Amino acid sequence: MIERYLHYIGTELPAPDETAAGARVRLADKFPRTALRRMTHLGLLLGSTLEGAAPGPEDALVYASTFAETRALEDFLQSFPAASPLLFQTSIHPGGVQQVLIGRQQPVARLWPLAGRTRLVEQALLTALLEPATRVVLAGGEERGSWLLDHAMASARAFAFAAVLTREPAGATGRVTFTPGSVSDEACPTLENFTAALARRQPLRWSGAGGVWTLAWL
Q: What confidence tens digit (pLDDT) does each residue in 150-198 have?
């Protein structure tokens, strides 16, 4: 069995109709003014969840997202034929988690950006469990799409999470385990479902990647 303990959890499940502009107002006190204007909705949500994680230069960060800055790209394309310079800058800005690390000047030992769909949570957790760093920050999220939803190329809602995983059980609030074994794959939680489980402290159990996964609360 491989395991890590959860010592910090931050989640963002904003109102379904929240926009990037609305998030800038709601979360303005969490970011440097110089960075705020160009941050994407996902970057703002991740910055909020990462505020209490305080990643350091010896830590590793695992970042999971299926669609990343999809909404920022949609907004830029919708500004044509009079393309918006500001929306262009936003659409090519570094990814959400990089926006946070750069703006707060927080270097990390390693950054593992992961993209996927049906088994993304498994990929992210396995990366976090196998990472040699003593302290691993696991983060992820999505922006809410608009017209790309019709093409299954965007998330239906915006959300984000961050969690600190270590091998130290003292003071932990939860535990993630993977027990290798010969089992059939089951449906893996989606990134949104995983975020909701973290926010509501709900346990999870499923099989995949050649073993059984559990998220338990202590």
A: 888 889 999 999 999 999 999 999 999 999 998 888 999 999 999 999 9
- For residue 186, give every residue at least 6 positions away whose Cβ sits within 8 Å of its Cβ, in sequence order, or none: 206, 207, 208
As a whole number, mean pLDDT of residues 45-65 equals: 96
Buried b (16+ CB within 10 A) or exposed e, 53-73: bebeeebbbbbbbbbbbbbbb
3-state secondary structure the chain: CEEEEEEEEEEECCCCCCCHHHHHHHCHHHCCHHHHCCCCHHHHHHHHHHCCCCCCCCCEEEEECCCCCHHHHHHHHHCCCCCCHHHHHHHCCCCHHHHHHHHCCCCCCEEEEECCCCCHHHHHHHHHHHCCCCCEEEEEEECECCHHHHHCCCECCCEEEEEEEECCCCCCCEEEEEEECCCCCCCCCCHHHHHHHHHHCCCEEEECCCEEEEEEEC
Lowest mean pLDDT: which of 37-51, 70-84, 189-203? Answer: 70-84
**How high is the mean pLDDT of the chain?**
91
Name the pTM for this structure. 0.91
Structure tokens belonging to residue 37: 């204007």
